[in-house]
Amino acid sequence: MAKPTTRGRGSATPARRTMTAAARAAAKRAERSPATAVAERTERGPAVKAPPAGRTVVIEPPDGWDDPPEPSPEDFAEDTPQETDVRHSRRGVWAALLSVLLVASLVAVAVLATHYRDGARADQARAEALAAARKAAPVVLSYDYRHLDRDFAAARAHITGKFRDEYQKTTQTVVGPTAKKYDGVVKATVAAPTDGGVPAASVVSASADGAVVLLFVNQVTTSTQVTGSRMDLNRVRMTMTRTSEGWKVSAVDAL
């Protein structure tokens, strides 16, 4: 006779053990009282329901908040052709005005630069013409009957222009013959202070290429027509001209 098989507690199958654990858990839940369930829910806190999907959450703004102004349709409106033309016209006017101001500024700068350059050249001309006149006056206004040709040639070296021709003609026809006839000697010097100061000469007017110089000239004359010597105090105006060879006398006037 076959022996009955006895299965111990630990030999139950896994499926049976699972069912047994589930039954025990259900029995425990059934044994809990309603008060115990309420207490457990209280400890966990009230349930928070999530807002339904797709709904907008409204947040109240804080105190003092000012909503920004809503844009008006004009803000997005495009410029009309007339407004575009006006804007282009204004730009053209401003561009023309700036061009005029720029040209005026350049012209003013050029004029000032020209005046400065001319002024600097005039100052230089005054100094050079004055020095040349002081040097030329004693030579041009002096002569000695004993060596007239040499004296007249030296004078012509300081003279230019038409005055050179006039001087040569006058010395050959008038001054030379008279000096030879009366043994004439004329010695000219630019007047200067007795203490040896600067000779008495000054510039009346000057430009870059010309100047007028006023000189006080002393002329001592001896001849057979004069007893002893005679001194003449003369004021002489010399016109000086710049040439390729330096400053030369272009006119002499006795005042």
From TrEMBL:
Keywords associated with the record: Membrane, Transmembrane, Transmembrane helix
What residue spans carry the region label Disordered? 1-85
Q: Does the keyword Electron transport apply?
A: no
Keyword Transmembrane on this protein? yes
| Composition skew (Acidic residues), residue ranges | 63-82
Q: Which residues cross the membrane?
A: 93-116
The name under which this protein is listed is Mce-associated membrane protein
* Source species of the chain: Streptomyces spinoverrucosus
Q: What is the lineage of its organism?
A: Bacteria, Bacillati, Actinomycetota, Actinomycetes, Kitasatosporales
